[in-house]
Amino acid sequence: MFRPLGFFIGLRYLRAKRKNHFISFISLISMLGIALGVTTLITVISVMNGFEKELR
Question: Taking the complete model, does pTM exceed 0.85, yes or no?
Answer without folding.
Answer: no
